Amino acid sequence: MLTPSSDKQVFPSLEFIGWYTVAPKPTARHIAYHEQFTGYCSTPLLLVLQPSLSLPGGSDINAQSLPFKAYEPTVEIKERTSRSVFIEVPYNVETGEAERIAVDWTAKGGGSGTSLESHLQTQRSAVKMLHERILLLVKYVADVVAGTTKKDHDVLRSLAALVASLPASENKAFREEFDTEYEDVQLTAFLSSLTKSTNILNDLVDKHLVLTANREDRGGPRRRMGRQGTMPEWGDRLHG
Fold it and tell me: Is the pLDDT of residue 69 over 80?
């Protein structure tokens, strides 16, 4: 039940502009509901959430990819009779960086998995978002240089200040630290691969010893001899 007076007290800075529902598309029933909101707003908007809508894939970072549509009421006159109908209206989504990263993380199932996996997914989303913003800035500067976009001196000054605030990446100290960290990462990956290979080889030796011992117990022929013509003992296994 709507209580505009209490809502106004809780949210004094907000105005009622419309309502929302979950449906594939607006129907006559929604028009009947919509008339109840005209007492609070002369032309309320209708936001239809469409969770079953299949979103088109693409690389356009400016494309709308949210499963909902906005409608506004209008009066259609047909055959000398008028009726209320909904027409779709365009909209823009304005969100902060933290909101977009959080929504993207949640949509991809960020709540499941280990804490490390969740942390890495968050970092990946942040880096992806930063990369998209850098591409937009580069495209804007390229369009300004080419003369296809109007020059905005405030934006250009902000870009110049941003570039000037970045730390210099081409100096000896930075390069030495970067090379050291890169070598440490590569060495860690190599040791991890070596340890995994050693464990696999150790398991293979264990299986071979068990198989050979079973054949020896059954009086079968020896297919492989140990050191100095004897069967290998358990102490001769390879340990990593």
Answer: yes
